[in-house]
Amino acid sequence: MTHSFFNSLANRLLFQGYLSKKDGHEIKEASFHVRLLKKEDALKMFALSQKIYSSLKPEEKTFIHKHEDISYYKNITDDRSMAYMGVFHKGTLIGMSYIKICADLQTFSNEIPNQTSQAFDDNSFVATFGGDCVLPAYRGNKLNQIMVRIRKELAQKIGCQEAYAIIDRNNINNLTPYFANHFSLISSGIDPTDNGPIYTMQIGLKRSNTGRIRTPSQFAFASVKDKERIDNLLAQNFQGVRYDTLYQIMEFIRKPTLIYTQKRVLVTHPQQRKDLQYV
Ligand SMILES: CC(C)(COP(=O)(O)OP(=O)(O)OC[C@H]1O[C@@H](n2cnc3c(N)ncnc32)[C@H](O)[C@@H]1OP(=O)(O)O)[C@@H](O)C(=O)NCCC(=O)NCCS
Asked: Is the whole model's pTM more than 0.70, yes or no?
C-alpha cells in the first residue's frame, strides 16, 4: 500500500510556490517546487546533506546524522516504507525531509524514543517525519512548514492515525513549522541514540480529530526558552501549542485580558472541562 502510494507520486509535482527571500534579502520571481526524490537524485541529496552538515549550529546537532557515503541516499530510496521529498529552485535541491510509515511499535520506537501509540493496537499506521533541512540561504521562506504540511497530507491519505517528529530542544527554528501545522508538543526527553535533548511533536490525523480546537480547561504560558517551566507543565499533562492558537481560543472564550504576553508557546491542558483556571 505504502509502496504503491509513494510510487504513484513519483513524478508528480507536490507543491509549487515562490521564494520571498534569499540570504535575508527580498527576491522576486524565484519559483520553487516540491516533489518526491528518487534514486537518480542521490548525488544531489548527498551534496545537500554535506552542505547542511558543514553549516550546522550547535543547537541543530541532534538528529541530523551525518552520512559519509552517497550509498546511504542510493539505498534509502529503496526503503519502501519511507519517502524523501525535495524542494528545488532552478534545478538545485535546496531542502529535503522524509516521511516514514511505521506499521509496528519496533519501527516506530527506532524513530521516536520513549513513546507508544494506540494505532498499532488498531492495526493502523503512524507516520514519522525527519531529516528536515533547508540550505541556510533559503531559510525562513516557510519551506519546512510546507514540507511538514505535505507530509501531513500524505500521511492522512495513507490512513495514518497519527504523525510524530522529534526536534532538538534547542532548535527553536524547527518548532515553528510543526506548531504552524497544528502539531502539539507532548513530551521532552533524551534521545538514547545520541543523548540529545528532544521534544516530541504529535498530531492526530483521524478525520474526526482534525480541524477542531478544544477549549482547554487550564492555560499556562511559557516561553520556548523557558525549558524548566515547559518540563514542569508537561509533567502536569499540559501540551504545547503555538501561540497563534491562543487568539482563536481567546476569541472563543472572550477573555482578551490574557493576551498580554509576547511569549511564543501557549501550553494547554488536553482535557476538556468547563471551569477555567489560569496557571
Ligand atoms: C530547521 C530548518 C529545517 C527550518 O527550515 P525553514 O525552511 O527555514 O523553516 P520555516 O521557514 O518553515 O521556519 C523557520 C523558522 O525559523 C525562523 N528563523 C530563525 N532564524 C532564521 C534564519 N536565519 N533564517 C531563516 N529563518 C529563520 C523563521 O522566521 C521561522 O519562524 P517563524 O515562522 O516563526 O517566522 C532549517 O533551519 C535547517 O535546515 N536547519 C539545519 C538542520 C536542522 O536543524 N534540522 C532539524 C533537526 S530537528
From this structure: yes
